[in-house]
Design goal:
Elements (H helix, E strand, L loop, with lengths): L2 H7 L8 E3 L9 E8 L2 E8 L6 H10 L1 E4 L5 E9 L2 E8 L2 E7 L7 H7 L9 E5 L2 E8 L7 H10 L3 H25 L1 E2 L3 H15 L15 E2 L10 E3 L5 E3 L6 H5 L8 H17 L7 H15 L7 H4 L7 H18 L7 H44 L7 H19 L10
Antiparallel strand pairs: 1-2, 2-3, 4-8, 5-6, 6-7, 7-9, 8-9, 10-11, 12-13
Length: about 425
């Protein structure tokens, strides 16, 4: 491997992990690399220098399975790097294309691209290796800026109104995708496997926090995007807000999963990214205001049943448990690169035990509320019998019991932080 090629690979490889012998057979034009360490392992399929030649590209793609629309009569190829894998700029007879190579795989983007709104930037084709989307292809589009840069500018100028408007539009764009996902495919919450996922990540990181949730029916499994960053949002030519759907982050390769997860996880990913950007600034704008705008935007276009109070409640997981998962994944990537403690992820994880204790103690209010409600029904039954016996009495005891049940139920719900309030 040449020095330039080695430097190219450093952009996406986990720098703190050690390469060992790989037994995976790579397709033509690729080499397999296995990395271990930090209680993780990851298998990568990386392109060789030959793939950036016209002959090498043709030989490689002929041996892979083609899907969708792909470029023809390619005239030149330029290989670049990103932290999510190699990128190739293809100059073809019918225009410029981008070929994104997924060294560690990712969610099935064919189905997600098919249902995405027209103004989204999604892969239109690609090449498969053993049913794995190894190369994603899309026509190259130029974007003057992205929502991440715009939000950073608003925060630095303390322009709260513009920041809120931007995040409301971003949340609404995400909700439009989820509305399409609902009509395409949903499944009941997979509570057992989702909690097993949390257990696996916590065990790998040996965290002091352990969180399991009874996920609500308002958060069904669907074709989630997996990782949502403000840098993926852009304004289309029509003036609407779109999302660029592309390769997954390194954490997906370190913790491979075939689970379908809820749409509210995508919202949590967006909120986590807002927190990252806000943390890096000295803005006077309150983070809760920014989060609320994104939540309201998402709720305005996402399926109504996915935006209920119960769906957002921390008692049933809500958005906060998926923010916790996003924070764990931030730490996973930081550990694999030994890049230092990521914030605000570490602070959020540190505060989870306190939140869990708060939610656990609130169950006392829930139990007492249920008890008062049952006793109130029994008291109402006795009062009805007396009333039928022509002994008119004011139903004092049932009213007291029902009122107590209502107050205790309110206290139970109040113990869960509002979704717009960050716990970090």
């Amino acid at each position: 491997m040449s020095q330039s090629e080695s430097h190219l690979h450093d952009a996406w490889r986990p720098s703190a992990m050690v390469e060992v012998d790989s037994e995976v057979e790579a397709p033509s034009g690729f080499s397999s690399h296995l990395f271990r360490g930090m209680r993780f392992r990851i298998e990568l399929l990386e392109p060789e220098e030959s793939i950036s030649t016209l002959e090498g590209w043709q030989k490689t793609t002929e041996e892979l399975t083609e899907w969708g629309e792909v470029p023809r009569n390619i005239q030149s190829i330029e290989l670049k790097a990103s932290n999510r894998g190699p990128i190739m700029e293809l100059n073809a007879e019918d225009g410029l294309w981008l070929a994104e190579i997924q060294p560690w795989g990712g969610p099935n983007l064919r189905s997600r691209s098919r249902i995405a709104p027209d103004d989204f930037d999604v892969p239109c084709g690609g090449y498969l290796h053993e049913d794995h989307e190894l190369i994603l292809l899309r026509r190259k589009r130029e974007f003057s800026t992205n929502a991440s840069d715009v939000l950073l500018d608003h925060l630095q100028r303390n322009d709260a109104e513009s920041a809120q408007t931007l995040l409301h539009r971003c949340g609404a764009a995400l909700g439009r995708y989820h509305l399409a996902a609902e009509s395409e495919w949903t499944n009941p919450p997979d509570q057992k496997r989702w909690n097993e996922r949390f257990h696996e990540i916590e065990a790998r990181l040996k965290t002091a926090s352990l969180w399991r949730a009874p996920f609500t029916r308002g958060a069904p499994a669907t074709l989630d995007l997996g990782d949502v960053r403000l840098s993926q949002f852009f304004e289309s030519n029509s003036g609407s807000m779109g999302i660029r759907v592309g390769p997954s982050p390194l954490a997906h390769g370190l913790l491979q999963t075939d689970l379908d997860l809820p749409a509210i996880r995508d919202l949590a990913s967006l909120l986590q990214d807002i927190s990252r950007i806000h943390y890096k600034t000295t803005s006077e704008i309150e983070l809760s205001i920014l989060r609320k705008s994104a939540i309201e935007g998402w709720s305005s276009t996402a399926p109504a049943s996915w935006c209920s109070k119960r769906s957002f409640s921390a008692h049933t997981g809500g958005v906060v448990i998926w923010e916790y998962e996003q924070s764990l994944l931030d730490v996973v990537e930081a550990v694999s690169n030994q890049s230092g403690a990521p914030e605000p992820a570490v602070t959020l994880i540190d505060k989870v035990p306190k939140l869990q204790k708060q939610l656990f103690n609130a169950r006392i209010f829930s139990a007492c509320s249920n008890l008062c409600f049952i006793l109130g029904i029994m008291g109402s039954y006795d009062w009805i019998k007396l009333w039928l016996d022509a002994e008119p009495l004011v139903p004092t005891i049932p009213l007291i019991l029902f009122s107590s049940a209502y107050v205790l139920r309110r206290k139970f719900h109040a113990a869960a932080p509002p979704p717009e309030n960050p716990i970090h």
